[in-house]
Amino acid sequence: MGTPDYINKIVILGAGSVATHLAIALDKSGYKISQIYSRTSGSAELLSLKINSEYITDLKHLDTDADLYIIALKDSVVECLIRKLFVNGIVVHTSGTLPMAVLKNMSSSYGVFYPLQTFSKSRSISFDHIPVCIEASDPRTLQSIRLVAQNLTDKIFEIDSEQRQYLHLSAVFSCNFSNFMYVVAADILKSRNINFEILIPLIREFLDKVSVMDPWDAQTGPAIRDDGSIISRQLELLDTFPEYKEIYRQITEKIIDRKNKENNP
Amino acid sequence: MGTPDYINKIVILGAGSVATHLAIALDKSGYKISQIYSRTSGSAELLSLKINSEYITDLKHLDTDADLYIIALKDSVVECLIRKLFVNGIVVHTSGTLPMAVLKNMSSSYGVFYPLQTFSKSRSISFDHIPVCIEASDPRTLQSIRLVAQNLTDKIFEIDSEQRQYLHLSAVFSCNFSNFMYVVAADILKSRNINFEILIPLIREFLDKVSVMDPWDAQTGPAIRDDGSIISRQLELLDTFPEYKEIYRQITEKIIDRKNKENNP
Predict the structure, then answer these.
(1) Residue A228 contacts by C-beta under 8 Å, 6 or more apart in sequence?
(2) Superfamily of domain B9-159
(3) pTM of the entire structure?
(4) ipTM
(5) Is the Cβ of B177 closer than 8 Å to some Cβ of chain A?
(6) CA distance B106 to chain A (A)
């Protein structure tokens, strides 16, 4: 038995967004997806039709002969699988937060295959440049996982379980929280009958900046200029948005603090 | 005298980033920039060389014959000009925060020409799709300003002084504060020896999403899923970043609040 060096046949556990995008990309790259497993049939059936695979809703029908099992399920569901899944092939999960070790009783070869991207079923996305973070129980398994990743993307990062937790945390700040800043902006604009699209070119320019420079060097605005009169005026405007006033105050304070710390280390 | 319908000759007051980008774009569009005014000579001289203009550091040498005076100076400096500048042409400022009325003693025709973009002198940028927000003392002046804007961009918005303040506030959230979320992410990653570039594709996908959908509909992450176990785990990780823990807690809370309010209006 042991680890197959070359992955041929893959089983996907899960039929959500990550499972769907991954299954389609792997299918396109020439891998045989033999099964899609999901506890409920709807999405699994749909996905299995798309990639000409079979779907199962009970693990007792699991194809025990696959080279790779990709668990793309919610963290809590992955934990439920722990006492139910034992296979000979490699088992990986796709979670940003679960340690690799949760898989250690499922197979002798296990690892992580974490695509750092946000997927919605309705938006198609090319895998070509999506960062994939990999980790494995041993060098041979790592090499097998790396080969699969290489067939999908040119951005492969070897990231251990501890780093991955911080990576996920930083993604929450840089994506979920920065998106919430857009939500606040949209709420403010809506109250004055201005469409959010007016901000898109400005937001895009900021993003282009941080693609080429350190985000801190790209920081602008009243806080980093420590422009007290604009800050007080904007806090006044926020009287009509009390739910966002404290966020404004706090982030402004953190920006000023960080600048001061830098000037007086 | 009165307002010239068609703007021919322009004086730029200021030699900072906005003044520089605007002067270069106007020069390219065929306008004659007769003078650059700045209190100090360095940047003004450099800019005047670029666009084959003259520069002055004293308002007593001001070209009194221009059709349009664009004040692209810091807000506090604009306020200093109030008792010093009187002209026949149209006067506009480029500020996101100053009311149009601060210009009312400088000319009978005045207005605002606010390009909603972040400019750094070192990054060249095309004006073609930069939103320009305009406002004027009267319809005829508005029409003259609009013609100038049309020669620079295809995105012109008529925004009054009150709206402009909220627009500027929303830009602080959506650009400065979201950029600070990147700063936090970069700090966290750096502590684990991970390069910030790993996040760029993810951030870019979020931006592409909000270009086509409401930011709130694009919101993802542990907060909107109200995923208590990930939130507590991430708060633990933030014990090593106490300066950012409160931001995490507060934004998470606001996202959960907004979701609950939506579900139970």
Answers:
(1) none
(2) NAD(P)-binding Rossmann-like Domain (3.40.50.720)
(3) 0.89
(4) 0.90
(5) yes
(6) 23
